């Protein structure tokens, strides 16, 4: 539900944040939010969330925004990379999606395509508000029910402010993971949180065994993402591990 975040007990996180802040270097003229903080992995959904109608139409693709830019007030262009093989369904969805207009195929690769779209005034977004409350977008990709995001906030107040924005606009918020960010982060080097999660589940469920204990379709169901998302994340994660291991 959209108000799920405000019911979370932040007592321990707040205590750890204050402890970290006490050790920060106060000699710099630049105000710092680099120490500590809260990292939230969330799933956001709303009928008019950016590209949500298209994502609902083309469930077999994975979409990752590359960047967006505002040419003039009221004109915002967004470039997105689409992974999978159901590009026809994605393009058909774009034709009737009220959140975007003027879709353009910018580039084509064997396993993905890059599109440019223009936001309409009916699109519901959250990236500007994330920055406005002091947060930072770490990761953003499509899931079966909207968008999966990983955000970092300097403190509880920023997180609650973001949640209130979502609640006021009826954006559904589902919390997948919430942790305090610190120097002791044990995330595998070179992997994103989603890649690490996928490899962990794949290993525990026997995806790499012979015979396999779980298929890509079943992994997709477990992680609530499309099969194409599982395929490209596995490929990227294994590539990153090989690069970091073989280059040393």
TrEMBL record:
Gene3D superfamilies: Winged helix-like DNA-binding domain superfamily/Winged helix DNA-binding domain (1.10.10.10). This is Helix-turn-helix domain-containing protein. It comes from Haloarchaeobius amylolyticus. InterPro entries: BAT_GAF/HTH-assoc, Cro/C1-type_HTH, HTH_bacterioopsin, WH-like_DNA-bd_sf. The keyword Ribonucleoprotein does not apply. Residues 212-232 form the HTH cro/C1-type domain. Keywords: Transcription, Transcription regulation. It holds the Pfam family HTH_10.
């Amino acid at each position: 539900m959209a108000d799920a975040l405000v019911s979370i007990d932040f007592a321990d996180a707040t205590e750890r944040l204050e402890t970290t802040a006490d050790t920060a270097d106060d000699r710099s003229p630049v105000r710092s939010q680099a120490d500590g903080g809260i990292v939230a992995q969330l799933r956001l959904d709303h009928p008019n969330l950016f590209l949500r109608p298209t994502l609902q139409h083309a469930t077999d693709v994975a979409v990752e925004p590359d960047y967006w830019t505002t040419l003039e007030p009221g004109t915002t262009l967004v470039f997105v990379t689409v992974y999978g093989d159901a590009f026809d369904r994605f393009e058909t969805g774009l034709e009737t999606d009220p959140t975007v207009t003027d879709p353009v195929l910018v580039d084509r690769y064997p396993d993905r395509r890059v599109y440019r779209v223009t936001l309409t005034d009916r699109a519901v977004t959250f990236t500007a508000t994330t920055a406005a409350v002091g947060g930072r977008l770490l990761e953003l990709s499509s899931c079966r029910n909207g968008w999966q995001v990983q955000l970092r906030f300097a403190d509880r107040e920023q997180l609650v402010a973001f949640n209130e924005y979502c609640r006021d606009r009826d954006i559904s918020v589902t919390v997948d993971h919430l942790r305090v960010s610190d120097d002791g982060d044990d995330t595998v080097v070179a992997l994103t949180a989603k890649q690490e999660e996928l490899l962990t589940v794949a290993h525990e469920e026997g995806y790499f065994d012979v015979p396999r204990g779980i298929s890509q379709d079943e992994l997709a169901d477990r992680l609530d993402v499309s099969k194409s998302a599982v395929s490209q994340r596995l490929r990227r994660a294994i590539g990153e591990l090989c690069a970091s291991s073989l280059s040393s």
